């Protein structure tokens, strides 16, 4: 079996490859797909140039590949087309396992990030590829900037209200991807993956306080207050609106569900919030 990991030089991609190797995968059975192959030289596996904008590179990277992990792209607004290029090439290549990192409840969620994931899941279904969908909740590492800012100011300000987030570390999600890629029996599954504990922003403030050694208070902002603060900090209108919409989704409960699926897949508890934050402090 040969596995292609797209986005292999990103934070998640690197961890997936490391997890595959930890689980005994032959380095020669792993292909790291990267737009800049020089950045993949330290991964210890085979490397192939893969640029979503150049279909020939995708087809070449898929040569001899049985399984694909499509790690969702980071270019919001362009991802559906980028993902389609990989899906089409994988279908043409006869890939027998296609794994995609999606978003929580992607087909029904109001989360601002959900539509591109929904569209990608629909493309995968239409392609006929034997697939596994990994609907990853938030990465704890997403809160690195909040950790830094609140550690300095003693204030965690956000528009998430009383919403909860079932985050886990990237390593947890990477381990789940590796398990699904290496094991039989997962085809056709849609896994909703989240941390064992859905925490509130008061919990986040307490975790930051524990790490920083100072009192940290959560200030819940209205959408207008949050937008004004972001604009005053130098963000453009579009970016500020995007952040406000993300927090509104959290406030409405878009990231608050967890049923233990992630910990069952990886065979251990997920990384607690404070431990995940401490690792990036």
Automatic annotation (TrEMBL):
- Keyword terms: Oxidoreductase
Task: List the InterPro entries.
Answer: NAD(P)-bd_dom, NAD(P)-bd_dom_sf, NmrA-type_oxidoreductase
Instruction: Write down the CDD domains for this protein, in alphabetical order.
Output: TMR_SDR_a
| One Pfam family here | NAD_binding_10
Q: Name one GO molecular function term.
A: NAD(P)H dehydrogenase (quinone) activity
Entry's EC annotation: 1.6.5.2
Name the domain of life: Bacteria
**SUPFAM superfamilies noted in UniProt:** NAD(P)-binding Rossmann-fold domains (SSF51735)
Q: Which residues form the NAD(P)-binding domain?
A: 7-181
Question: What is this protein identified as?
Answer: Quinone oxidoreductase 2
Organism annotation: Microbacterium foliorum
Organism lineage: Bacteria, Bacillati, Actinomycetota, Actinomycetes, Micrococcales
Q: Encoded by which gene? A: qorB
